[in-house]
Structure formats: structure tokens, C-alpha cells
Design a protein that fits this description.
The structure is a single chain. This protein is of the alpha/beta class. Strands 2-3-4-1-5 form a five-stranded parallel β-sheet, with helices on both faces. A five-stranded mixed β-sheet has the order 8-9-10-11-12, with helices on both faces. A two-stranded antiparallel sheet has the order 6-7. Helix 7 packs across helix 8. The longest helix is centred in the C-terminal third of the chain and has 20 residues. It is elongated. The two termini are about 35 Å apart.
């Protein structure tokens, strides 16, 4: 992965002799719960899974967990702790008692709260009580690590909590790592599984991959069948996290068409006419990691010129290919539903995801075809020209990318379009090695071959390059025989 390994970060944090609290956060489905469960299991700690209940019910569940674990409830040493009604200890007393137990133990005590948002929302003083327990641990030299699992890429932290001793963000795997986890053996299977099911660890199959089934059967079974593990998964998640899922669903359905700025998005979302109306919805989607914003290369850090896109390919696939026809689908006949209703929409989705896979390739694997790795990669748009991907390599070489998957556009025409854009843009002017790059899943035709002979720097990438899988001459290079044009 590009970032540090979350498991290594968390393991090092809970081994520290100094007490503190650890924030584990990230978009839904990126393996937060699995990561924390592993840490608690290997450290012999305590794991409490919060749920949407009243404060008294959550406290009762925590008491029950501690009672089951040790046969009793921890008691703090010293005066100043009053029992709750009924003579039972409250949060403050239980947390202080765990601290005092840890002081007598042989190693750090790990107490993890998965779904901490439910406790924070149910009991306003809970963050203060956690902070008091941490202050007590520091004062008494008790090695205590409290892990709070929160949703999103930038969760709101209560002001009463001190600065976390570690911030650990979970995220999706790289394209090739996800393809390997899916068990794909051909470039098309690998790319399509990543584009339709994504790369969040939670949605990857169990060890062994998807077996001998083709990618279409895998997606249809997991997403469209009533017993599929991903059946209606986005709707369940939206309903769990957001108070008005219909409005968020409308925004996501629009963004499934590809990256959009505010004016374009406003024209596609019902009930929203101004930026002020849309701002809180987009801000929440972005803070939760469902949506991410991108800026054009060369823009100022504070520029408002940005576009939004759905972060998770699976969410984009579901919102763009499944939701529009959901009322027509039969969960008891998933393959018929796939071929009749969903499959006609999939080629356009695969084409929309190609720039993202290409940008990832430039960041991680550009050295395989060029003399240097990627240094700065992004999109470029404005009045001069628009490029879905531009790769600035570490040796100063700038690659301008044209992505074309449609059978209706010859390779030579795609090359001419790319060359015209390179002539218009001023980005990278002065660089000697301005390189045209075409991403063509269908391969090189004769017209493009003649163009490339006149422009020796031209580079063509295909699905084999992007996925890292060897080409299979027996397998289709793209969605052969699609019932609709690839741009439909």
C-alpha cells in the first residue's frame, strides 16, 4: 500500500509503555473492525462493540462484557466514585477500575470501542470520562491504550479528549493488490472485478479468490442474488450512517456518471438548487470517505476549482449500474437480472474507471514502462485542454494520457485528439520529453501503428499493463459482444 501498514502502526502503538488513546478511522468497509479485533485478540485486551442504543443499555452491555471476561467488575482504588442507581458502577468508575488493574498487570492493557460514535452520541460526558481515565493512567504509570473506532477520513473528535497518541487510517488496497485478492487470472477479469467490487478489504473474498467463475458470474452472484454478501449493501450502509439517505443516494447516483463540479452536480440532483443547499451533504459524504474531491494539477492549494467523485469503485458501480434498474431486478434470478438489466450499463462504468486505474499505475508502476517512477499524478482541466490523467515523472518527463475504450473510436483518432490537446495546454511547456500516452484496452490498430511510427515517444498501455497480469490470447480484451455501445 502507498501509506504505512495500518496493522504495523497499531501494533507499535499498543506496545508503547506510555498510556494514551488511539484513533482508528477510515471509510466504511476498509477493515477497521477486523484490524482492531486482531489487535485486541493478540494483546489479550477488551473489545466492546457499540450499537445504536440508549446510554443505559450501552453501559449495561459494557458491564456484562467485563463480568463475562473476569467474573466481576473492576473497582477503582480510593474514594470519590459513586455507584449508579441500583448500586452498580458507572462508566467513570469502570474505566478508572480498569486503569488501576492495569497498574498491577504485566503489560499494557488495551480497551477498544468499535463503533465508538454510538457511545459518544448516547452519553455526552463519555468523552470526558475517557479523558479522566487516561489522565489517571498517566498519573499512576498504568500502561493503558484506549482505541476508539470512528467513521470517515476526518472524523470529529470531542474537544474534551486529548490529542490521540496515534492516528491510524484504514483504506483500500492498491489496484493490483485487490486484483490479486480477487483471484483473477486474466487482465479483463482482474480489472472488471476491481471496477465492480472495489478494493476495500471488507469486500474482498476470503482466501482462495473467486474460484473458476468468470467475473460476471462473480459480480452477479455477490451483488444481485438475495443471498449474496453484497446484496443491497450500499443501501444498508446509507441507511445506517445518514439521516436522509434518499438525498445522499441522489447525489451518489449523479456522481456515478463520473467526476463532477458543483454546477454539473446541481443540475442532476433533485431538490437542490443552490450550492448552499448542497454543501452540507457533500461535506458529510467527503468526511465519511464516501466521496472525495480532486483539483486540477497546478492549481493553488486553496483553489475552489474542484470536482467530486465516489471513492469506492463498488459504490460507483452499484449507484450507476444497479440502482437505476433495481426495481426491475429479481434477486431469485441474479444471472437473468445481470444479462437483461445490469450488463448493458457495465461497459460505460468500466470505461469511466479506466482513468482512475491509469492514475494509480502512474503513481505505483510507471517505472515499468518509463525511466522513472511517478512524481505527481492528477487530472488537468480548464480552458485550454482536458486530460483525465497527466503523469509527471521523477525525471521531469510529463505524460499526457488519452483513455479510449470505445470500439467506435479508432486508435488514430484517439491519437489525434490527444496530440491536439497537448498542443493547446501550457502545462508542462518547456519540458523536452512531453510524451503522449494512450490507454487502449482493445489494443493497437493499424492506423495508430502508423501514427506511432512518426511519434516514437508514444506509449500505449492496455489492461495487462494496468493489472500486472499476463495477456491471455484466449480471453476477450474487453466486453466483447456488449449489447450496447461502450459509450452508451
Amino acid at each position: 500500500m502507498d501509506a504505512a501498514d495500518p496493522w504495523m502502526e497499531l501494533r507499535d502503538a499498543i506496545r508503547s509503555p506510555d498510556s494514551g488513546w488511539i484513533l482508528v478511522h477510515g471509510p466504511t468497509g476498509t477493515g477497521r473492525s477486523r484490524l482492531v479485533s486482531r489487535a485486541v485478540r493478540e494483546s489479550g485486551g477488551i473489545l466492546f462493540r457499540g450499537s445504536p442504543q440508549e446510554a443505559d443499555d450501552l453501559l449495561g452491555d459494557f458491564r456484562g462484557l467485563l463480568q463475562e471476561r473476569s467474573g466481576g467488575l473492576p473497582s477503582p482504588e480510593g474514594p470519590g466514585f459513586l455507584p449508579e442507581p441500583g448500586g452498580l458502577p458507572g462508566w467513570r468508575s469502570l474505566l478508572a477500575g480498569l486503569v488501576d488493574q492495569a497498574r498491577k498487570g504485566r503489560g499494557p492493557l488495551v480497551v477498544a470501542f468499535d463503533g465508538a460514535r454510538w457511545v459518544l452520541e448516547a452519553r455526552r460526558r463519555w468523552a470526558t470520562e475517557v479523558a479522566e481515565a487516561l489522565e489517571r493512567a498517566g498519573r499512576r504509570g498504568a500502561p493503558v491504550h484506549i482505541i476508539l473506532v470512528l467513521d470517515g477520513v476526518d472524523p470529529e473528535i470531542p474537544a474534551t479528549l486529548p490529542e490521540p497518541s496515534a492516528r491510524i487510517r484504514t483504506g483500500e488496497l492498491g489496484v493490483r493488490e485487490a486484483i490479486q485478492a480477487h483471484g483473477a487470472v486474466t487482465p479483463l477479469d482482474g480489472y472488471a472485478l476491481w471496477a465492480c467490487l472495489g478494493s476495500d478489504p471488507y469486500r474482498l473474498p476470503k482466501p482462495g479468490g473467486e474460484g473458476e467463475r468468470g467475473w460476471e458470474e462473480v459480480v452477479a452472484t455477490r451483488v444481485l442474488a438475495r443471498e449474496g454478501d453484497l446484496f443491497d449493501a450500499p443501501l444498508r450502509e446509507l441507511d445506517r450512517v445518514f439521516q436522509k439517505p434518499a438525498r445522499y443516494s441522489s447525489i451518489l447516483r449523479a456522481l456515478a456518471e463520473g467526476p463532477m463540479d458543483w454546477p454539473a452536480l446541481r443540475t442532476r440532483v433533485r431538490g437542490i438548487r443552490t450550492g448552499a443547499q448542497m454543501a452540507p451533504y457533500l461535506a458529510r459524504l467527503e468526511s465519511m470517505g464516501v466521496v472525495e474531491s480532486i483539483r486540477p494539477l497546478g492549481s493553488a492549494p486553496g483553489s475552489r476549482d474542484r470536482r467530486y467523485r465516489i471513492r469506492d469503485p463498488f459504490m460507483a458501480f452499484w449507484m450507476g449500474c444497479v440502482l437505476p434498474v433495481r426495481s426491475l431486478l429479481d434477486p431469485d434470478e441474479p444471472w437473468h437480472s445481470w444479462t437483461r438489466w445490469v450488463r448493458p450499463r457495465v461497459p460505460a462504468h468500466l470505461e469511466r474507471l479506466l482513468p482512475r486505474a491509469t492514475a494509480h499505475w502512474f503513481r505505483r508502476h510507471a517505472h515499468e514502462r518509463f525511466a522513472a517512477p511517478g512524481r505527481e499524478v492528477g487530472a488537468l482541466w480548464g480552458g485550454e485542454a482536458e486530460f483525465a490523467v497527466v503523469g509527471w515523472l521523477a525525471n521531469g518527463q510529463i505524460c499526457y494520457v488519452e483513455v479510449e475504450a470505445s470500439a467506435q473510436v479508432p486508435g488514430a483518432q484517439a491519437f489525434d485528439r490527444l496530440a491536439a490537446g497537448m498542443e493547446r495546454t501550457r502545462y508542462g511547456i518547456g519540458r523536452q520529453a512531453r510524451t503522449p500516452v494512450l490507454v487502449l484496452p482493445r489494443g493497437i490498430d493499424e492506423g495508430l501503428r502508423r501514427r506511432m511510427a512518426r511519434e516514437p515517444l508514444t506509449t500505449v498501455l492496455d489492461l495487462s499493463d494496468l493489472t500486472g497480469l499476463p495477456p491471455d490470447p484466449r480471453a476477450p480484451r474487453w466486453m466483447e459482444g456488449s449489447p450496447v455501445p461502450l459509450t452508451g
